[in-house]
Amino acid sequence: MQPEEVICQQHARFADILTKPARKPVSLNTFLIQTARKGLFTVVIIDEAQRLSIQALEQLRLLSNLEKASQKLLQIIFVGQMALEQMSPG
Fold first, then answer.
1. What is the pLDDT of residue 89?
2. Furthest C-alpha separation in the chain
3. Is 43 exposed, middle or buried (0-12, 13-18, 19+ CB in 10 A)?
4. Number of Cβ within a 10 Å radius of residue 38
């Protein structure tokens, strides 16, 4: 399988997980563990992040706590304007 095919396949699976609210916590964790076992990284890039509410940022922060003993399972990259920096507690 070509790298582009892997990316498309993983994107489709991740999108499917996020659109089924009842399955989110278990399915997301399972997806992340399976992805890590394959030696792949899951990265979420959030553009226009300054538009997120504080509550949404907190939910994303909690997702970043998903990890195995040896590694984080999810990397989140926030992209935004200077207002995003002002939202950061540190």
1. 60
2. 43
3. exposed
4. 9
Residue 14 to residue 67: CA distance in whole angstroms: 17
pLDDT digits (tens, 9 = 90+) for 32-85: 888 889 888 888 888 888 888 888 888 888 888 888 888 889 888 888 777 777
List the one residue out of 44, 6, 7, 51 whose CA is nearest residue 28: 44
pLDDT value at position 20? 62
Burial class (CB in 10 A: 0-12, 13-18, 19+), 87: middle
Coil, helix or strand at residue 75: strand
Count the domains in the chain: 1
Q: Say how many C-beta atoms besides its own lie within 10 A of residue 73's C-beta.
A: 20
Domain hosting 81: range is 3-87
